[in-house]
TrEMBL record:
Top-level taxonomic group: Eukaryota
Taxon lineage: Eukaryota, Viridiplantae, Streptophyta, Embryophyta, Tracheophyta
GO biological process: cellulose biosynthetic process; response to abscisic acid
Protein name stated in the entry: Glycosyltransferase family 92 protein
The keyword Transport belongs to this UniProt entry's keyword annotation: no
Residues annotated as transmembrane: 26-46
Keywords: Membrane, Transmembrane, Transmembrane helix
Amino acid sequence: MAGLHASLRTQPASSAVNHQSFATKLLLLLTVLPLSLALFAFFLQWRGGGIDDPISRWSPDESHKFPGMDSSPLSTLGHSSSQSSDCSALLRHYNAATSPYFRDWKFKFNSDLKPKISITTSTSAGLEQILPWMFYHKVIGVSTFFLFVEGKAASPEVSRVLESIPGVKVIYRTKELEKQQAKSRIWNETWLSSFFYKPCNYELFVKQSLNMEMAIVMARDAGVDWILHLDTDELIHPAGARDYSLRQLLLDVPGNVDMVIFPNYESSVERDDIKEPFTEVSMFKKNYDHLTKDTYFGMYKESTRGNPNYFLTYGNGKSAARVQDHLRPNGAHRWHNYMKTPNEIKLEEAAVLHYTYTKFSDLTSRRDRCGCKPTKEDVKRCFMLEFDRAVSVVHLHYSHIVICLIKFYGQA
């Protein structure tokens, strides 16, 4: 009996000891675990750990590096091996703090994503204009670019950068290219012949049409579904599309539609010191296709300010064509088909944003490229649009006066 009472007294004591031991171990675990995790995190950060820090990834010090180009021709542009990815010599006029589009050119787009979209352009612009233009369109779903380059765009410093970007095909205007295009089908067609052997805008129109004809062949070889022709001062605005995606916009187009029309909006510049049009210009004049008749006619005088045209430049928009048999260009703004009249639709929300004459240099570069005499007759021979003619006469006369004054005072 006494032994039974003794065993009953030892059981509560043993239970209390076990409970205290468990609590001690649990407390130790709760203390060691967070300390271990903290040390592990510190170790990862100290060693680099493969953590992609967005802040360091987009830091101004890194903004000149072109992603996916570590082994690109940039490394041979006179830099040391430690500076192989520094493009400051090429982009010295560009503000590093506002150019994040110089990174991440290798978008994680699967090759089976449909539709596959391409853009073709004829350009003589520099990197400061072409790169943000390309990056924007890559973001909204364009995978392939056919760049027909001249002037600054064809210079070694610029073209080597363009060629190193995935999805970009650079075509130079060589004598061989001109000979090849002189044998093309549209060169012998009457609809284009009225523009032959004329300077400036007419010559550019012919070049664009011939380049578009070649781009169709390239697009078919690349397995492209849709092709657009844009200038490097134009951006597609896929309004109304889910996720602001041009790919989604064209994916929703019915299969029997051959061409999609994007009405153009024209920029209204509010300042005279624009450096980066795509980020600094935000006000646009809507196309009349996207306005009610009451608004269009009611505000016409205030909108045009004496200009006989609603826009300073063109107003018929741009188009995307489904790549198919017998496709051909129909000028710089449209496509056509040799075997049928294309079935086209006009989008009610999506548009082309045209950054028209946003900088003074846009006017002077056109004047310098054309080399027209300062007479109304000569600029009419050079330019298609009345605004271009008027501006060119003013600028040509002004330049002539300045040169005469410089000579006069220089001799004095």
